[in-house]
Amino acid sequence: MDHVEGVSPVQVGRRIRDLRAKLGLKQQDLASTDISASYISLIESGKRAPSDAVLTTLARKLGCSPEHLRTGRDDHATEDARLRLSFAEMALRNGDNGEALQAFGELLSKGALLDLSMRLRARIGQATALEKLDRVEAAIPVLEDLVKDPSLAAGSDEWCRVSVALGRCYRTMGDVTLSIEICERALATLDSLGLDVTVDHIQVGSTLIASYLMRGDITRAHLLAQKLIPVAEEHGGRTGRGAVYWNAGLVAVSRRQLPEALALTERALAMMADDDNLRHVAMLKVNVAWLELQSGNPDPARARELLEDAGETLAQFGTAVEQGRCEICLVDANMQLGRWDEAADHARRALGLMSSGPRVEAVGARVRLAEIHLLRGDADQGLQALHAATRQLRHFTASYETAQEWRHIGDVWKRQGRSKEALDAYDHALQASGMPMTYDPAQALTQESRR
Question: What domains lie within the chain, and their CATH numbers?
């Protein structure tokens, strides 16, 4: 018999004996042509472990399930727990993340009712709900425990989902190096299993591309995207192919190939438009809108329409950060349309959404708010917001994202004729992008004169 959670043959035998006695049956009553009364006696005394087939036969005669004989779980309570687990997963799919998290927590607090597969589903659901609620720090230890769980078979769909989520969470927390290590290790594991290329490869690879981009490894991201595109075309469904084109579009953005980026992202949106993952579709619309605003011939009205549509979906299914990014893009769209009041409102909403933790995106919202104040002639408010953005950005570690924000701050200072502040911001942008200051030969002369 496959023992469940350390259940011994003695415990199984005791349950069979007690239930038989409760029903007023004798050992002979449980016997059949394949199971003798003496064998029943050995089972009840714990000297024999019944096979699955024998356990099924005995359960049928005792009017219970084989699972009840194995574990002692009440059949009705277990079925109720199974239904509650399904409802919790449904709530998660529908965007009721808080309700889902509470339901998963209640189920896990009554672990005796859950078998191994049910407990695994509940823990994965709990981690997913925590991430969607932007409680990433709480999600990480749950995911770390799941990765180490021997019941989570390497190469399985659940294992892939957990690995991808863990890499994504560490990236969200700013530990891009660890995110890359997790995803590279997951890809190596999939390769070592000798499996045919699957959707799992595509999911892990897509997450890895995004982490490479955040670290500024544009070449690696580009090479991986080029490798995944033909794989996705051959093995992936529309959603898998869409994910690859989505990330390939991000790579093209980093390479400043904006027309190509827009075409790739539009293609991803077309592939995923009918997908039931409304959150992903909304995020793609945000990307398309952003690229539209960056193009040589922007259409801010179309971008605004896409963003408003995406915003409604993200308000229900997205995280606070994803909603904040949508709001920031709405700032840009409304600024291009000359709608200053609406742009300022969206900037303030973005700041409110980013208030739960240190986010580089919050810096971007402050810089845009500063620009709006300055364009409207409110120099005091504008400079105050710009100084606040500068102070906040100094607390972030160097990355491709922080380099972009330093560049933005420098451009705003430059437009205000503040050369000193602009040069300081540009200097930070260069250092954040990995370009240190050159050596000053005058230092050697100064040191020589002191000797």
Answer: 9-72 (1.10.260.40), 134-275 (1.25.40.10), 280-346 (no CATH), 358-451 (1.25.40.10)
